[in-house]
Design goal:
The chain is an alpha/beta fold. It is built from 15 helices and 13 strands. Helix 2 packs antiparallel against helix 5, helix 3 packs across helix 4 and helix 4 packs antiparallel against helix 5. The longest helix is centred in the middle third of the chain and has 36 residues.
Amino acid sequence: MHRRGEDNALRHLDFTVIDIFLMQLSFMLMYWATGHRGIIYLDPTYRIQPIIFFSGQMALGLFSDCYDGILVRDKHEEFIVMLRYTFEVWLLCGVFVILANIKAKLPQLLMATLFYFDLAFFGREFNKFLHRRSRPDRRHVLVVTSSDQVRRAILKINHSGAADDHEIMGICLTDDAELGQFSDLNIPVLYITDPNLLPTLTTWWIDDVFVLSTEKGGYPKELMEDFLTMGMTIHYSLSVLDDFNFAKTDVDSLGDYKVITNSTHFITDRAAFMKRSMDIAGGLAGSFVTILLAFVIGPVIYIKSPGPIFFKQKRVGLNGKFFYMYKFRSMYLDAEERKAELMAKNKIKDGLMFKMDDDPRIIGSEKKGKDGKPRGIGNFIRNTSIDEFPQFFNVLKGDMSLVGTRPPTIDEWNNYAPRHRVRMAVKPGITGMWQVSGRSKITDFEQVVALDKKYVENWSPLLDIRILLKTVKVVLNHDGAS
């Protein structure tokens, strides 16, 4: 995962302002529709509600991707995005209302939200209509590429929606080819070696130059310098990047070099800051609970199995870095030594993870219930996920995150195939997509990797929140733990 900075809220400031205005108008309409008179901001009972939702919108505008690609979304896509955005606002502001114990009537909040959804959807669509109507004439583009890429380049530009903003005025070939083969395109085709190239181009209206580099054609450095001298904007592309459909691409810097960067996912600085802020807040709360739990279950663990109540193990973290992960000890002290003799009962194929039913290494597992299942203290803290709480200290240290992928042991990591290592392209987490998908029911490690890869490629603050909420449900239902 690669980190980059970008500012969608400021780039689409008009949409941000319209959304905020319509949210406040929605609360005014709700206020009047429920029989009140005057202005809601003068009523001490109600004015806190629009202020909270204003703050929520400001936070989402800065940290979410709600305005990404807004100008090219169709009505159906906008409808779906609006549903998600409205849910995000509700989730963020609703949690604050509950924690702050603010008096608010649910039917009135729902009415204001319904007003907002309708107004904002049509407001966004109308603003996009104004953008399209006021858009200047299409920019004229000169394509510089080799003969084998000409038709593909024209097809991809026209089919991507860029044709609404750009018009291809001519083609410059970087290799020798028969010009007659392009006569059906009705676009002028020239050689970059043509001595009359620059005099000809100075008679054209050219805004942008698109350079599609290939192995067949060389890079026309001197020509590009001439174009820049003439004030043209140059866009560079590498056709080889088209083969990496699974990766995202960005332009970045490495020292004094300008580089094209491929990564499974990009995150903004603000999104990274938001994730770390969530980790610190959750880590502080979780660490406090861990200390309280240590006073309760610590003595029980020690009585059943004398020794340390915490278990420390070296794990593999972000991009292969080692760190020590902490847990409440739920196994006997010789658990690691006995693991080798139990590998035959491993439920996970290929030994890339270890899971087994009725693990005899768990403290007190020799005690069975009426159903024949072990009922020891170790089984209890594992089934309730209490053993995971000390990892909140790892979260505070920065070795782990609240949400991520589970960190493998060193021997598991050493047996990974290259495709498996994508799991550690993000910080390991206490919970994650695999954990909330019934982790004990998944016995194929490739499924684990597929879920983790899906998380890496689609990460967003909202996805983390969804997984955290689902984790609470999974833990309360004792679903997927073993």
